[in-house]
Specification:
Elements: H1 4-9, H2 12-37, H3 47-69
Length: about 80
């Protein structure tokens, strides 16, 4: 899955994109959690739609995380 040896071998650009991918994963995860558990976020939506949107964002965050940490075939 993920090893620190492959992280050390990456170029600075690849490391930056990896860290940016992790930051975006955390952003979507926190935003989804805020939509589900927060009462102040998007009060104009009905609670059912807020929860659905929050779950969708969390699923999207998990997909992004999997794509960031999964090993890619080097070309």
């Amino acid at each position: 899955m993920f090893s620190f040896e492959t992280f050390k071998q990456k170029s600075p650009q690849q490391r930056f994109l990896f860290i940016l991918g992790l930051v975006m994963f955390l952003f979507y995860l926190v935003l989804g959690g805020m939509l589900i558990f927060g009462n102040q976020v998007l009060n104009m939506l009905q609670p059912v739609y807020r929860i659905l949107l929050g779950c969708l964002l969390i699923v999207y965050a998990i997909i992004r995380f999997w794509r960031v940490v999964s090993p890619k075939a080097e070309e």
